[in-house]
Design a protein that fits this description.
This protein has 448 residues and is an all-alpha fold. It has helices at residues 2-16, 22-48, 54-70, 82-93, 103-108, 119-124, 136-149, 154-182, 191-194, 197-205, 210-225, 230-241, 252-278, 284-300, 307-318, 324-345, 351-368, 378-387, 391-398, 415-447. It is built from 20 helices and no strands. It starts with a helix and ends with a helix.
């Protein structure tokens, strides 16, 4: 009943509810989340009663895949990034780098029709005055999808990309099952990821490539620990960085595992494979455009932040204006320092510890960032499924409150909603940390 009801809710949410109808959207999203938690509680109870079998886990995985399949033949309704994907893909088909020209320049110079770029597509872009910020692996996917779909066929383009995301998800689920077995944790924990509404809606539903990042990062961990091949791990990790730049924050945790010398070779290997992936799109003169767009993105935009909004308020009190450029640099430095400190404090070298500290590094990054879109939390859900923490699961529901900004023409955020989101997330995080520390101390006391 819960699976059937969830399927109906997914169809309603993605096919019929626009992002401007926030109340209906969040009510439906909450209903999906309630069904998800109820299913997981039932599964956990069956596990404790020793009645849960592996075939049952596979059946629930099949249900999660079924939910994703329902969302394939429809355009994303919570984001408009896919228009830029198509724009970049059509440029790539004509061997024109999307990092070389601004969309608005191609339109004003009359060059766009040569590359099958229409003015209607241009009018849908949310960043017409910025160079593309999407990494090279995604550009290859955009090019393949645009080539197969052809011009003026954005739905076909979307369906091809959604199928690619589904393939990455298949890989991630398979890797999670292997990793859970390796670290001796119940395999049903994979369902925390497979059935999570945010994961399903934002990846397959709204076409976000955290799916590729998660797959390649898990594959790197798999090769490093289970296959014990650091070179293959470097290749896989390169895929993660070439999908999203975020995995770079995990690099400090590799030093104490493979040593400084091998870590240097690891980095050089990554650089080499990145050059191979990027040879078609990037050359030295163009590289500055890419860096300028990434820098402008983080120095200009702000959305659903936590500590950053506190620092911004302090800046207004002191200076009287938004000090985003200065605050952004300070939070970036604080994130780097914090992650290096986490790597220094980590004492264990097993895979379970790497998964946990990677989760903390990503959490630190998100909590200090000035932009936290809902899909940014999806990798945290993957880590939560593998290490047992539940605050990312709570966050994956509460971050739905951030979509209030899309319910008005000016994209005005509701600071009460943002406050509620982070108060509960911080509360859950502190509770889980305290509980684990208390349990560990109690175990040490009993041992003594």
């Amino acid at each position: 009943m819960l699976i059937g009801a969830s399927a109906c809710l997914y169809i309603c949410l993605v096919y019929f509810i626009p992002r401007t109808s926030f109340t209906i959207f969040f009510a439906t999203f909450t209903a999906l989340f309630v069904a998800y938690v109820a299913i997981m509680q039932s599964v956990r109870q069956s596990y404790l009663n020793k009645s849960l079998q592996l075939k049952h886990v596979y059946l629930f995985i099949a249900a999660g895949i079924f939910f994703r399949l329902l969302l394939i033949p429809v355009e994303p309704n919570l984001t408009d990034d896919y228009f830029r994907f198509y724009w970049d893909g059509l440029l790539n088909v004509h061997y024109i780098s999307p990092y070389a020209y601004l969309p608005i320049d191609l339109i004003e110079n009359g060059l766009a029709p040569r590359f099958d770029l229409s003015e209607a597509l241009f009018n849908q872009l949310n960043s017409p005055k910025y160079f593309s910020v999407y990494p090279p692996l995604l550009q290859w996917l955009f090019m393949l999808a645009a080539y197969l779909a052809g011009p003026n066929n954005i739905l076909g383009f979307i369906i091809i990309l959604k199928i690619s995301i589904l393939c990455f998800e298949f890989g991630s689920i398979a890797l999670m099952l292997k990793i859970l077995t390796f670290i001796k944790k119940p395999v049903y924990n994979v369902l925390w990821y497979v059935l999570n509404p945010l994961v399903i809606i934002e990846l397959t539903g709204n076409l976000h490539f955290e799916a590729a990042m998660i797959f390649f990062v898990l594959l790197a961990f798999y090769w490093l620990y289970i296959k014990k091949t650091w070179l293959y791990a470097a290749i896989a990790f390169t895929g993660g960085v070439a999908s999203k730049l975020i995995p770079l924050i995990f690099l400090p945790f590799f030093i104490q595992r493979i040593g400084f010398k091998k870590t240097m070779f690891f980095g050089f290997s990554m650089g080499f494979f990145l050059l191979i992936l990027a040879f078609l799109f990037i050359d030295p003169p163009i590289l500055q455009n890419l860096f300028s767009s990434v820098s402008l993105y983080y120095d200009t935009f702000e959305f659903n932040a936590s500590f950053y909004y506190m620092f911004r308020w302090i800046g207004y009190q002191i200076k009287g204006w938004n000090m985003i450029a200065t605050i952004g640099k300070l939070t970036a430095l604080s994130t780097f320092t914090g992650i290096v400190l986490l790597a220094y404090l980590e004492r264990k070298k097993e895979l379970a510890s790497l998964l946990q500290f990677s989760m903390w590094a990503l959490s630190l990054y998100l909590l200090l960032a000035n932009i936290v879109h809902p899909w940014y939390v999806v990798p945290l859900v993957a880590f939560a499924a593998l290490n047992g923490f539940r605050y990312p699961i709570l966050w994956s529901w509460l971050i739905g409150l951030s979509y209030f900004a899309y319910s008005n023409a000016t994209y005005q955020e509701n600071m009460l909603f943002i406050t509620l989101e982070y108060v509960f997330v911080f509360g859950m995080m502190i509770y889980e940390l305290w509980t684990r520390l208390t349990t560990k101390r109690q175990a040490e006391t009993n041992f003594l």
